[in-house]
Amino acid sequence: MAKYEVRQTAVEQLLADVKADRIAIPELQRPFVWDSVKVRDLMDSLYKGYPVGYLITWQSVGAKLRGGQVAAYQQILIDGQQRVTALRAAIAGLPVIDKHYKKVRIRIAFNPVTEEFATRTPVIEKNPQWISDISEFFNSAGTFTFAKKYLERNPEVDPERFEATIGRLAALRTAQVGIISLADDLDVETVSEIFVRINSKGVPLSSADFAMSKIATYGDRGRNLRKQIDYFCHLAVAPHAYDDIKENDTEFSATDYLKSIAWLKDETDELYDPEYGDMIRVAGLVGFNRGKASSIVSELSGLDPETRKIDESRIPAAYDKLEAALKQIVSKYHFENFLMTIKSAGFIAPNMVRSKNALNFAYALYLRLRQDPGMVEGERKRIVKRWFVLSTLTGRHSGSFESTWEQDIRRITEQGAANYLKQIEEGELTDGFWSVTLPNALETPRTTSPYFQTYLAAQVSKGARGFLSKGITVAAMLENSGDIHHIVPKDYLQKNGFPKQGDYNQVANFALTETSINVSISNKPPMTYMGIVAAQIASGKLALGEITDADDLAKNLIENAVPADFAEVTAGSYPEFLIARRKMMAAAIRDYYRAL
């Protein structure tokens, strides 16, 4: 069976199909990213008969059209949005949505004498030789009347040449555009593969893209759900865009969907800024117990998982589940309480979270556990924190994470979250993990390592102070401007047998400290600068930091997982120091995890 068919269609037929909703372009509600020069070039290519690439559509069953009608099928445009939007703007004269969500016009001018296209400017508008907006020509009552008026304004123009030129311009209506229509019975993975192979740019199309397109085909409700997702993600990053959305998307502004996300206009936390793919996946876990975005497309298409056939009667219930899940996801109370839960585990800065998928699953888990009336809030938060940290340490949500997600959700449902979590902990967080696997994983120069970031989270959670700091905490430095300091200074190591970056830039040689302390230590070896601290404790006269008590110094070294005898470390004993500190850091992470 053919997986797709290739056909040609006239520009005017394409625009008519879009207008009648036979071809859905859900992305039209998102900002138009082409500039007017690209629109001009598209018109010029069509005029000259140059190829403009294929549009790619995918058939959708049970789509709702404007006016409440239900289509037997509808083609979803999955590639070519910008080209179709450009055609609608230039030829039909329809506005586009700019980055401020305002409707603006892109006007393309044409000079019948020179046969040039250009973006309309004030100079062109005043020049009678130019047709300053070709949409006025295409939307005029008749070519004859339009031509007559033009020649009256330009008596020097050769009528015969003008007639030939204007005829070629009019032929843009019937210019052929290629459309590749993918079969309706293809699964999302197959559609994705075909898309990549026939798309000249080779840009992959994700399952989340299909899901977003599919959501928008369900009439006004689907379009509003699609916008709710889009706008939530946009406002999470740019709260100031709220006024633009409210002012310029009046239809959406009149719905409860905007009200549900309006709180984001005052939200500035950057710890978790989900993209639409993240929202789709969380919704899949919460609403459908599914980890794959493609599974949501199947659900919204009415695919019966047992018969593997389309059952349109299943579609309304699927949209009910999606909307209910999104309502939970965008809730201010849920979102903020989840963020507080993650922060209470010590992950207080965006760059500490190395796996967005771990955060996505943790949020879905949090929302699902909220559906359990018998679970108290403290237990819910304990499970979510442990699951997030476990996922971060083990890379549980990397690789083929979607299959893992579905397995985890299924077993959480069957066994209960607490029991299943304990089972995973017993299998993965063994004594060997804490004593061997984790110390070995900390043998890295990457401060972005999830293991090092979890160590910092452990310090935050315990209220640890910076290295040799009396009162400034690691949390305060992560939120402001603390330095990552080489405990055994880089310059000292470079001059004493460790010239390679991978040697001195080991995370086991790093500690957060105040800038002033870092400057005071400079390139002094541990014996020298710790001698200064010892003299400071003896005299009470500050010279390096503010610690003046021996017990407080010992406590500070423990807080920073630094061996008590590290003042004796030299270049010769540096490798042994790294081994000892990695073990201490791993032990600190273990104790932190068990205390969550």
Automatic annotation (TrEMBL):
Segments forming domain GmrSD restriction endonucleases N-terminal: 12-214
InterPro entries named among the record's database cross-references: GmrSD_N
Q: Specify the superkingdom.
A: Bacteria
Q: Which Pfam families match?
A: GmrSD_N
Q: What is the protein name for this chain?
A: GmrSD restriction endonucleases N-terminal domain-containing protein
